[in-house]
Backbone:
C-alpha cells in the first residue's frame, strides 16, 4: 500500500533529472519513514497522498500583482560574486565565461540600485562564494575579501552572508567565524525557547526582518572536507560519507555516481543542524510565521542540476516538508539559476551567479513580500518570478 502510494506520487511528480524512478522511490521511502520528525505517520499515508494530490490540483495560479496588494517589505538577493583580480576566464567545463574583475562592478551596480529603490529593501542576502578560489593561489584572499566588503559598506542596509565552497578554498572555518563574513550577530533570539538557539558547531541562524516572517540561514558545508582540520571528527565523518558515495580518485568528479552530488565541492547538513532547523520550524508553525530559508547549496533536484545539490538534500527536504511554514528556499552555487515549486508549495529559487554575467548584463534581484505572495524582481539575466504561498488548508496533515 505504501509503495503504491509512493508510486502514485512519483508518477504524478515530474521526475528529477538525476534520479531513476527506483532511486527516487528509494529516497521517498526514506523521507517518509523518518520517524524522528513524526510528521507523517504510517496510518496517515493515504491521507497524506490524498492531501498531496489535492494540493497539486489546487495550486494557485501564478497571478499578477494587483494595485490592491500591499507590499509588506522587500529584500535583495545576490549570488556567486567570486571576485578575483584576474583576466576573464572560463568555468571548469570551458563553456561559460567568467568575468572575475567585472564581478565587483556588478556588485557596485546592484548596491546602487538597492540604495535607490523607493522602498529600501530591509536587507540583502548574499548567497555565498563572495570571492573566487583563485585568490588563494595568488595569496590575494584577504585583499580581495577586503575590497568586496568595502564595496558592501556602500549598502544602506544589513547584508547576511552565506558561506560557500569558495569561502573554504580561501579561508578556514575558524578564520571565517572570526571574519566580517560571520553575520550571526544579526540573529534573532526567541525568548524562553533555548532549543531555537543554534550551536556553535555550524554557521546558521535565524532572524525576523518583518513581523511573522522568519528567515533561516543554513550552513550547507556543515558536513564538508573543506576548511576544516583533517584531524577533526567532523572532517573524518565528512570524508567517510564522501568516500562511501564517491569511489573516484578525484573526489571533485561526479563521473559514474548514482548520487552525483557527492563531490568534494559540495557539502551537507549535520543531524545536529537539521534537529535545530526542525525546532525553529516547529516554533514558526506554532507562531503562524512564513519562513524563508537561505543556503549556498540547493536542495531540490528540479531547481538545480543533479551535481550541485547538497549531499543529504533529502534529509533537509524531509524536515522542511514536515512543516507548513516554509514558503521559499533561496540558493546559489549553480550559476545558471533555476526554479521549481515542490509538491508542498515551497518555491526553490537558485539565483544566477554574478561571476558568469557579461558586463552588459546584471545578476541580482529584489524580492517584494506581500501578504499572499513574494515577487522576485530580477535584473539582467535573473527572471521575474511570482511565488504564491501555498493554501494553508492543503497542508494540514
Ligand atoms: Zn559554490
Residues:
Amino acid at each position: 500500500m505504501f509503495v503504491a502510494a509512493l508510486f502514485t506520487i512519483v508518477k504524478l511528480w515530474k521526475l528529477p533529472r538525476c534520479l531513476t524512478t527506483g532511486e527516487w522511490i528509494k529516497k521517498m521511502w526514506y523521507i517518509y519513514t523518518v520517524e524522528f520528525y513524526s510528521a507523517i505517520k504510517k496510518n496517515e499515508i493515504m491521507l497524506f497522498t490524498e492531501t498531496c494530490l489535492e494540493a497539486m490540483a489546487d495550486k494557485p495560479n501564478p497571478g499578477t500583482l494587483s494595485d490592491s496588494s500591499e507590499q509588506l517589505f522587500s529584500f535583495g538577493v545576490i549570488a556567486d560574486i567570486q571576485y578575483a583580480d584576474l583576466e576573464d576566464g572560463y568555468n571548469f567545463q570551458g563553456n561559460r565565461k567568467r568575468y572575475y574583475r567585472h564581478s565587483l562592478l556588478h556588485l557596485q551596480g546592484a548596491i546602487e540600485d538597492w540604495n535607490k529603490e523607493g522602498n529600501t529593501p530591509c536587507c540583502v542576502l548574499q548567497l555565498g562564494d563572495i570571492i573566487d578560489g583563485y585568490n588563494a593561489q595568488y595569496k590575494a584572499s584577504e585583499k580581495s575579501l577586503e575590497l568586496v566588503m568595502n564595496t558592501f559598506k556602500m549598502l544602506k542596509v544589513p547584508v547576511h552572508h552565506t558561506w560557500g565552497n569558495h569561502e573554504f578554498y580561501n579561508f578556514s572555518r575558524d578564520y571565517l567565524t572570526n571574519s566580517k563574513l560571520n553575520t550571526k550577530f544579526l540573529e534573532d533570539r526567541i525568548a524562553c525557547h533555548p532549543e531555537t538557539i543554534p550551536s556553535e558547531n555550524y554557521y546558521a541562524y535565524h532572524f525576523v526582518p518583518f513581523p511573522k516572517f522568519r528567515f533561516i540561514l543554513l550552513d550547507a558545508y556543515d558536513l564538508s572536507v573543506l576548511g576544516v582540520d583533517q584531524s577533526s571528527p567532523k572532517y573524518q565523518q565528512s570524508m567517510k560519507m564522501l568516500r562511501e558515495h564517491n569511489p573516484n580518485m578525484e573526489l571533485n568528479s561526479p563521473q559514474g555516481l548514482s548520487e552525483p552530488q557527492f563531490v568534494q565541492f559540495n557539502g551537507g547538513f549535520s543531524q545536529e543542524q537539521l534537529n535545530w532547523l526542525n525546532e525553529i520550524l516547529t516554533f514558526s508553525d506554532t507562531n503562524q510565521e512564513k519562513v524563508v530559508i537561505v543556503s549556498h547549496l540547493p536542495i531540490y533536484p528540479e531547481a538545480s542540476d543533479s551535481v550541485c545539490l547538497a549531499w543529504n538534500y533529502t534529509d533537509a527536504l524531509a524536515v522542511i516538508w514536515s512543516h507548513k511554514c516554509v514558503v521559499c528556499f533561496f540558493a546559489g552555487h549553480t550559476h545558471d539559476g533555476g526554479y521549481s515549486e515542490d509538491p508542498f508549495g515551497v518555491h526553490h529559487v537558485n539565483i544566477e551567479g554574478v561571476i558568469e554575467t557579461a558586463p552588459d548584463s546584471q545578476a541580482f534581484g529584489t524580492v517584494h513580500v506581500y501578504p499572499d505572495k513574494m515577487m522576485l524582481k530580477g535584473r539582467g539575466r535573473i527572471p521575474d518570478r511570482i511565488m504564491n504561498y501555498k493554501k494553508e488548508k492543503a497542508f494540514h496533515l
Remarks:
- The CA atoms of residues 2 and 230 lie 43 Å apart.
